[in-house]
Design brief:
alpha+beta, three-stranded antiparallel β-sheet
């Protein structure tokens, strides 16, 4: 059997041998976490084969190098999942035509970003649209991390400090944390809006 026949047979069985970069140890994950799947592409295209999504596409397992997520919870009566190679149009308002694309906001980090024009903490503006300088808004949907300018960070940090007196923003100048469960602090914080 040659390599092409083997790939065709493996694709038919939904199983394939391919290379990608994987971590073998995780620490600090919540008790309901199964693990971490990094999907950020490597900037060096020579290392493209180490990227899980591109390896799936390059080996013919999926047709498109894309992944979509259904982020639900037990309370919603559904199970969350990731769909590699496409998306479930029934979960999009307006179906596939409801998908919106956003232009990449070029930035000094060399990453994808949206143009951050305004940010609110509850109803209070931390950055006023049209008045303050825009910035690369890197919103990581796989975590709770946001990248915002230092002056905007300082404003929101002061708001958090009022709500959470035990907030630690000194161990790292650009990262704050509380040694408490999400259940205990969620009701004390306001939503962040853009």
């Amino acid at each position: 059997m040659n390599a092409v026949q083997l790939k065709l047979e493996l694709k038919g069985n939904k199983c394939a041998f391919f290379q990608f970069l994987a971590l073998y140890k995780s620490q600090g994950l919540g008790h309901d976490s199964d693990g971490i799947l990094g999907l950020s592409p490597h900037k060096d295209m020579k290392k493209k084969k180490l990227h899980y999504l591109w390896s799936l596409k390059d080996n013919g397992i999926i047709d498109r190098a894309m992944v979509s997520f259904s982020i639900t919870s037990k309370e919603m009566g559904e199970t969350p999942y990731a769909l590699f190679g496409g998306y479930n149009s029934t979960q999009i308002v307006g179906g596939a035509q409801g998908l919106k694309t956003f232009k990449n906001f070029n930035n000094w980090l060399g990453t994808w970003a949206l143009e951050g024009q305004g940010m609110y903490y509850g109803a209070k503006p931390m950055q006023k649209p049209g008045e303050d300088t825009s910035y690369p808004a890197i919103i990581d949907t796989g975590s709770s991390q946001l990248s915002i300018p230092p002056d905007v960070f300082e404003k929101i940090r002061l708001e958090w400090q009022q709500a959470l007196p035990n907030l630690d923003c000194t161990s790292d100048k650009t990262f704050c944390h509380v040694k408490d469960s999400c259940e205990n602090i969620a009701s004390k914080l306001k939503p962040v809006g853009f």
